[in-house]
Amino acid sequence: MGNENHDFLPELAGQDGPQPGPSWGNPRWPLTGIDAEGDLTQALDPTAMKIAVKAAAEKAGKATDPKAIEEAASDSIRAMLLIRLYRVRGHMAADLDPLGLGNRELPEDLRLEWHGFDGQEDKEVFVGGLLGREWVKVGELAELLRANYCGKVGLEYMHIADVEERRFLQEKFEGPEDVIQFTPEGKRAILAAVVRGEQYEAFLAKKYVGTKRFGLDGGESMIPALEAVIKYGGQSGVREIIYGMAHRGRLNVLANVMGKPYKVIFHEFSGGSANPEDVGGSGDVKYHLGTSTDREFDGIDVHMSLVPNPSHLEAVDPVVLGKTRAQQAIRDDLKKHEQVLPVLIHGDAAFAGQGIVWECLGFSGVRGYNTGGCIHFVINNQIGFTTSPQFARSSPYPSDVAKGVQAPILHVNGDDPEAVTFACKLAVEYRQRFGRDIVIDMWCYRRFGHNEGDEPKFTQPLMYDAIKGHPKVSEIYAARLVEEGVIDGNERDRLAADFVTELEDEFEAAKSYKPNEADWFGGRWAGLNKPADPETARRNIETAVSDKLFDSLGRTLTDVPEDLTIHRTLGRVLDAKRKMFDTGEGFDWATAEALAFGSLVTEGYGVRLSGQDSGRGTFSQRHAVWIDQTDEHKYIPLTQLPHGKFEVYDSPLSEYGVLGFEYGFAMADPKTLVLWEAQFGDFANGAQIMIDQYIASGEVKWLRANGLVLLLPHGYEGQGPEHSSARLERFLQLCANDNICVCNITVPANYFHVLRRQMKRSFRKPLVIMTPKSLLRHPMAKSAAEEFRGESHFRRIVSDTTDIEDKKIRRLVLCSGKVAYDLIEARDEAGLDDVSIVRIEQLYPFPGEPLAVRLGRMTNLEEVIWCQEEPKNNGAWFFVECQIEEALSAAGHDGMRPRYAGREVAASPATGLAKRHEEQQRCLVSMALGLNDGGEAARGGKTAGKKKA
């Protein structure tokens, strides 16, 4: 979006300014120039029919014979229908299965007899220029159509609405380039790549017997095809390719496409680390690791990176797309999307079965998430782990889900490396021209089982009988090249022998290889680092802003342009903001957030906020986007600031995909504060895979730091189980090795500082914030101007609002989040002058040191209570109990243990009944304060912690 007011999306619409149709419509739809029935409608157009009839009659010399005219017209119509049906359904008879096990017979409606041409192969019909012919014999027409659409490549494209896109693909299959042709040098290069792929797998199998590698055996045609993506991509403007793929063939791609040194991979196979020993980290299995490199084709350098991935299939997809979007922004490539290309390599079962695939396809035309088209390469093994296609999906092809975004699909026989390479070349051309997703579905097979130690004949004996006797790809292709006279009969063996010699040398070199550098703080990450010790992550960072900047931001956030008619309620909100800046008092959560965003932008950072309804905010609190009430044009105040860039997007209704996208964006750009906001905190449930596999563990597994921020509304206000809890306990369970930061903040200024701290530190850690709901407008949850300026900073612990002498405190109630204000109000109403309430604003890394200092000053302390709104088996209790006990011991309160006050254990995180919620809340507050109606009235001194709460 940038620092401009974008009402629509020129990058998709192809033009600037407002467009016809509703303001809420996608500018891509409806497409212009759509011919829903395609060429058949064109063929049946009255004018076209008159031309066809006249031409047919004149050719027959019977311009006035009604019967001849009728017959000629009928022939022409039926011939054009045949052409259309081949364009729609010809792929169903394409020669795709290398094993020949599938039924790929010509469908009935593609046969001449079905169209009334039985026995009329020599009959000439008028087709009006289709397939480059005016007149053509019926038999010749059928032969031409079968050659175009039923060869080693089958094309699905007639579901595409855009006429220009269809015609582009038609010309590639029906025009002069219909024959897949490569130069002799190109053919030899393809053969050499296939041989490298095969011999690499064979070498690993020999040297590391029984070791899992998830080899590419049976699908080696992918190697020259991916090299074609690099070559032809570079020729068409691509300067960076970002890959994502799962296990199968990954090691082969790392070595033979990405150029990762063979000795490094052999070192890892022998149990060695991919990084220096002093770097730390847990590491990961070798077929999860990524890398980056540069390759040069035809004098053009292309930078490539393969994103690390977990075992969870397709989880890497949105990460690749998010990283691509970030790199496009860095390269100023968001309008044309020409320089950075995402390539996702899928398995057939996963492409059809994993919902994240559709979520990512859905991004392809959405503002803020569009990457100008992704090339999807499906390694179609024709089997899952042990599951046959009829049990894995309901659609004919695994790629059918891509039709939902009108992506063209190229089905191709994996035993023909030229055909696969041609498909990739065409995919690059299409993507670069139209900026749209395209799918290559390469039909191949797994020569071994799911992994090399698996026995596939348990479940697919007939398939593996066929595979056992099936020749390798290089054998089939080399024999063809010998027949064509391109190579002699020994060329394949020479290529194999030379490559094996190279591998043997690398194998020996691996024995003494030691990594000397960790690849994680280069490029845009230069200047950042890993914290030297855990304490580094806890120290205060200067996050206050100057008076001048503070006042300037106040004007930006409250000034309404003269040509903007705002909603009257927004007007009242802005009046309240002006009062905050005028008086220096009463700053609320949304204003503190806007100040943090605006100050970072002014200092040159980027800010990207996305989520479900993030522009306005789920609770109508943010109003980052102002909508004119007369014509709906948009005004975004923070985009008016200089230096940096502010973006806010209402995302698709996806958690898994969008969170993964934002993680990928933050992976590429540490200089942008990237935030994902859930509509309600528990919606993060739908993204748990991304949280577990990437956010919590990505740094320790792959040495990939990330500064993504998760904003998760959390707090018990009687809104039921799904709208109360962001599942704080799940995040705390994931905390270890200083991996993430988890906060439950109650003070607007503290929110301001933690957001600024996220960018001001010399390192990046994911930040999880339990954001409030009722506190957004709570009269006690306010901050003063001085809390944003001067010497102010983020406070991990917030002391009581009431000034109680430390030596007078007998009961200390520790808590986190909204419940603090309930406790303070009840305590003050009851007149308790020896009870202090202290908030833990940052739960991890736990502020044990400052808490111990605070406890040490409470010399007459008798008991410590941990109070939470969540049920006992949820929330922070099980995490903080031992942490508080350690702080008590460090403070000299030996033997004292914290006691729990809160809801009982529960299977559901909250009740949905308002009265029950209110009673539970009253009881837990009373219990924490020791009031008589709380069910736990008696004070138990230092032994009270041993009593059951």
Description:
This protein is α/β, with parallel strands linked by helices and 949 residues long. The protein folds into 5 domains: 1-27, no CATH class; 39-151, TPP helical domain (Helix Hairpins, Orthogonal Bundle); 184-518, 3-Layer(aba) Sandwich (Rossmann fold); 542-787, Rossmann fold (3-Layer(aba) Sandwich), CATH 3.40.50.12470; 797-946, Rossmann fold (3-Layer(aba) Sandwich), CATH 3.40.50.11610. An 8-stranded mixed sheet has the order 3-9-10-8-7-4-6-5. Helix 27 links the parallel strand 20 and strand 21. The protein is globular. Residues 1-43 and 934-949 have low confidence and may be disordered.
Please tell me the CATH architecture of the largest domain by its name: 3-Layer(aba) Sandwich
Number of strands: 24
Main sheet properties: 8 strands, mixed
- Gross morphology: globular
Query: Structural class, please?
Result: alpha/beta
For the terminal residues, how far apart are their CA atoms? 53 Å
Tally of individual domains: 5
